Automatic annotation (TrEMBL):
A Pfam family per the record: DUF4164
Source species, domain of life: Bacteria
Coiled coil is among the record's keywords: yes
Keywords: Coiled coil
InterPro entries: DUF4164
Ranges in coiled-coil conformation: 50-77
Protein name as it appears in the record: DUF4164 domain-containing protein
């Protein structure tokens, strides 16, 4: 083989190695972008869950407050009824 033939073979070998390295770098980049996309999707799901849970908590607090109001009203009525019964029994 001539010196120029060896030079071409060396150049082709280096080109193949450079292409292989480039391919690996591109594959790595795609993998990182895929992973980043997965993380962003998970963050969106967490925010959606948080919003839903906050809304459910607000509704539960509203129901708890309403039940507390009803409980006070029932208690007041029971006291009134007991006082009325005592008044009737005392006669």
């Amino acid at each position: 083989m001539t010196p120029s033939g060896k030079t071409v073979d060396v150049a082709l070998s280096q080109l193949r190695q450079a292409l292989s390295t480039l391919e690996s770098a591109v594959d790595g980049r795609f993998e990182r972008e895929r992973a980043q996309s997965d993380v962003e999707g998970e963050v969106r799901r967490v925010h959606a869950d948080r919003s839903r849970l906050a809304q459910e908590l607000d509704q539960a607090e509203f129901r708890a407050n309403r039940l507390e109001e009803v409980n006070r009203e029932v208690s007041r009525r029971l006291v009134t009824a007991m006082e009325t019964i005592r008044a009737v029994l005392d006669r």
